[in-house]
Specification:
Elements: H1 2-20, E1 35-37, E2 45-55, H2 65-82, E3 87-97, E4 104-115
Parallel strand pairs: 1-3
Antiparallel strand pairs: 2-4, 3-4
């Protein structure tokens, strides 16, 4: 009986992790204020580079391609906000696959973080 309880608890924990992998990473309050642009801004202070990502070989098949990309962009925003930035120049987006997967298993977005005056 004790083994069944441990097995059920382990199965519940794995299920929770898989289901958590299905949703896109949410922005923090500060991250929600970070704008992502595709043109490099001029005249603003560069704070550094940032990489945002979501997914892995275990959760990628259970997460839509859209949620992988949105989650990676939200992770990028959150990290930029933590650096003190409010604008990210997105430079590259990559989508990783796995031979035994149905599609993308991970999305990664790379950008430069800037501190710009508030409007």
């Amino acid at each position: 009986m004790k083994t069944q309880s441990v097995t059920r608890a382990a199965l519940a924990a794995v299920s929770a992790l898989v289901l958590a992998g299905c949703a896109a990473t949410q922005t923090t309050k500060q991250g929600a204020d970070v704008e992502i642009v595709t043109q490099k801004p001029a005249g603003f202070r560069l704070l550094g580079e940032v990489v945002g990502s979501q997914g892995n070989v275990f959760s990628g098949d259970f997460t839509t391609d859209e949620n992988l990309l949105i989650g990676a962009r939200n992770d990028l925003r959150n990290k930029a906000a933590a650096m003190g930035g409010n604008l990210v120049h997105a430079q590259d987006a990559m989508h990783s696959t796995h031979p035994n997967s149905r599609g993308a298993v991970k999305s990664t977005v790379v950008g430069s973080v800037f501190a710009c005056p508030r409007k």
